[in-house]
Specification:
Layout: H1 2-24, H2 33-72, H3 78-100, H4 105-122, H5 124-138, E1 147-150, E2 153-160, E3 164-169, E4 174-178, H6 179-184, E5 188-190, E6 196-204, H7 210-222, E7 234-240, E8 245-253, H8 259-276, H9 294-297, H10 302-310, H11 320-329, E9 331-335, E10 340-342, E11 350-356, E12 359-363, E13 366-371, E14 376-377, H12 379-384, E15 391-394, E16 398-404, H13 405-408, H14 415-432, H15 440-455
Antiparallel strand pairs: 1-2, 1-5, 2-3, 3-4, 6-8, 7-8, 9-16, 10-15, 11-14, 11-16, 12-13, 12-15
């Protein structure tokens, strides 16, 4: 800064020397006196500019670094110093224009008054931020390095500029708050170097005497780095919780920006201290009621599935014990209205029994059958593994019982049962498709051979 002031002084003196030399050697200038006057005036004005810079910086040094700082023991705000410098530059430039070029400053000021009024209205909010920032600093509200909280905003002050105050939040985000907002709202300041208090809550078992717990908490908190020793940390009973006694640790710190780190270190130290003294941190006590799905209550149980199986003609050759085995292995599915249960050409190894609702059997988008509760479909995929021969779509919400190959295989161990089932299937297919040309006996033998091959009989 000192080198900068000396540099401006030397530059100004050098330009003044150039002006003096030109004024003494006018033969080097144009012959027209008016041109000579303009050139000499321009040289003088240019020489005055670095001298103005030198003068303003000297005034800034004397006024703020010596007078204000040493007499009032207050650091002058940067924003105020910049504003004073701008005003001084404007006054000195106006004086130079008036003295050197004989401009009428009053005319400029008259015009400037109108312009200033227009700018004042247009920049009302900006000027409010400017003067609010100056007022905050003159009042000594906060300084860079302090922690402030305004509403939901919480962070460390980095700088105060013309428009707003720059904060660094504890998440390391940069935040700019307008100075007028800080001056208008409630502001909480935690000065850097001040002993700022902090309170932590700790839950401890009710069965441990408070005197023992208080001593342990104080010792744990006092040894944490960052906790001030000028005002010793202490513990107290904060209340009675549902599951534990609530204790409070109050401590002080000089650097409030370290509060999260100090809180975490105190909690860690308390955990180790309580563990060494066999003191438990209780868990919350809750009453638990096991949840039972209402949807499962609406689904058929094993008895209802057994009742449905008894009315499936293709499985009628099986015994009741076999039906019970299949019912225990069956799966229940719920389909919404419009959902496809099985698709044409899809692979499958199971059949379905409609327990609730209505389904539509469609071939090439044409409905060929509508099934109600108790009806079944997909038996050929269950018995022979054939691909699905139609689309089956839920007309309403449907509850269906699925009988898969792994449920039928344990009970289909007798070739005679396979023959009886093939006969039922052939009979059912004959009644559904009376126009078929195949003889019933031939069709039964074909189905039987497929069943034996599919189940390895």
């Amino acid at each position: 800064m000192r080198r900068s002031r000396v540099g401006w002084l030397l530059a100004g003196l050098g330009l003044l020397a150039l002006h003096w030399f030109a004024s003494r050697n006018r033969e080097l200038l144009p012959r027209d006196p008016a041109d000579q006057k303009r050139i000499l005036g321009a040289l003088l004005f240019i020489a005055c500019l670095p001298l103005m810079m030198f003068a303003v910086r000297v005034i800034d040094l004397v006024a703020f670094d010596f007078v204000v700082s040493r007499r009032r023991q207050v650091q002058a705000p940067l924003l105020l110093r910049e504003l004073v410098s701008v005003i001084l530059y404007a006054v000195l430039i106006a004086w130079a224009l008036s003295s050197i070029f004989e401009y009428k400053v009053t005319a400029i000021l008259a015009t400037g008054t109108v312009v200033a009024a227009i700018l004042g209205l247009a920049l009302q909010e900006t000027l409010g931020n400017l003067f609010s920032g100056i007022a905050l600093h003159l009042d000594g509200t906060f300084a860079p390095g302090d922690v402030i909280r305004s509403g939901e905003t919480f962070g460390i002050v980095e700088a105060v500029r013309w428009r707003g105050t720059r904060l660094r939040t504890f998440n390391n985000n940069l935040l700019i708050i307008p100075n007028s907002m800080l001056a208008r709202e409630r502001l909480e300041v935690f000065p850097n170097g001040n002993l700022n208090a902090r309170v932590l809550q700790i839950n401890v078992d009710y069965n441990v005497p408070p005197a023992t717990v208080l001593n342990v908490l104080v010792q744990a908190a006092s040894n944490v780095e960052g906790v001030a020793h000028a005002i010793p940390a202490f513990a107290r009973i904060g209340g009675f919780g549902e599951s534990a006694m609530v204790y409070e640790i109050k401590y002080h710190m000089q650097d409030y920006s370290q509060r999260d780190r100090i809180d975490a270190d105190i909690r860690k130290a308390v955990w180790y201290a309580l563990r060494r003294n066999n003191i438990a941190i209780p868990l919350p006590i809750r009453a638990i009621q096991r949840y039972k799905s209402t949807e499962q209550k609406q689904q058929p149980d094993a008895a209802e599935i057994l009742h449905r199986l008894a009315h499936v003609d293709v499985l009628s050759p099986l015994s009741r014990a076999a039906h019970e085995t299949i019912a225990n292995a069956a799966r229940v599915h719920v389909f919404s209205r419009g959902e496809t249960i099985i698709g044409l050409g899809a692979e499958g190894d199971s059949m379905f029994i409609v327990h609730e609702g209505t389904v539509s059997v469609r071939v090439d988008d044409a409905e060929v059958a509508r099934l109600q509760p108790g009806d079944f479909f997909g038996e050929m995929a269950l018995l022979t593994g054939e691909r699905r021969t139609a689309d089956v779509i839920a007309v309403t919400d449907v509850v269906a019982v699925e009988i898969a190959k792994d449920a039928l295989e344990p009970v289909l161990d007798d070739p005679a049962l396979a023959a009886a089932i093939s006969a039922k299937v052939a009979e059912r297919r004959g009644s559904l498709d009376s126009a078929r040309s195949d003889a019933p006996a031939d069709e039964q033998r074909t189905i039987l051979s497929k069943i034996r091959a599919y189940f390895g009989l």
